[in-house]
Design a protein that fits this description.
Number of strands: 0
Number of domains: 1
Strand content: under 5%
């Protein structure tokens, strides 16, 4: 699911907020307190929340990878400069 397919109210959630909503939905589904149509809507929302969390992790991974690469490049440059 692409980011553009994720509803705005989900895109604006932090990781913690998305996780909390997922836990709330799972609790409702496990208790069987909702009818089938509502269950399907909640399941769809779970999938959207899951994709949002996945996108957040991918974004953080890219950020960390970029920072790691910069740090490695600085160390390499520093070592080269020290050898001169």
């Amino acid at each position: 699911m692409k980011t553009k397919n994720i509803p705005g109210d989900i895109k604006s959630k932090s990781l913690k907020e998305a996780k909390n909503e997922i836990n709330d939905i799972l609790s409702k589904l496990e208790k069987n307190d909702i009818d089938l149509d509502k269950s399907m809507d909640q399941y769809k929302r779970l999938v959207e929340l899951n994709h949002h969390i996945d996108n957040l992790f991918k974004s953080k991974f890219k950020d960390i990878s970029a920072m790691t690469k910069k740090i490695k490049n600085r160390k390499i440059k520093k070592n080269r400069d020290a050898k001169k």
